[in-house]
Write a structure and sequence with these properties.
mainly alpha, 2 helices
Length: 102
């Protein structure tokens, strides 16, 4: 955590945890947005699954079905990677290319 010392107008030395506090709030915001995105994605998947079964599962493979399947299931892969990175970075498990923990 970065600690910056500066003199306030009264002349007392004040400690500001600006960088560490900002990093904490950004991480919390990122986790909350990830959880909200997961909830919306799962909600959409659940309410449209019966239509997917009816309209796509019995059909032959064509370009439209491939596009639908990719657009339907790739977000789950991306979200899984995002959740993994969020959890691992919270526990200090991801190392950046420069060698520092993210």
């Amino acid at each position: 955590m970065n600690i910056d010392y500066f003199l306030d107008p009264v002349g007392f030395q004040t400690v500001a945890y600006t960088a560490g506090l900002f990093s904490f709030f950004c991480r919390q915001y990122s986790i909350l947005v990830t959880v909200a995105s997961l909830a919306v994605l799962l909600f959409d998947f659940i309410i449209t699954f019966d239509s997917e079964v009816h309209w796509t599962w019995g059909r032959g493979w064509g370009i439209m079905r491939i596009i639908f399947i990719v657009s339907r299931y790739v977000p789950f892969v991306g979200l899984a990677m995002t959740v993994y990175c969020s959890v691992a970075s919270t526990h200090g498990g991801i190392v950046s290319s420069s060698g520092y923990n993210i």
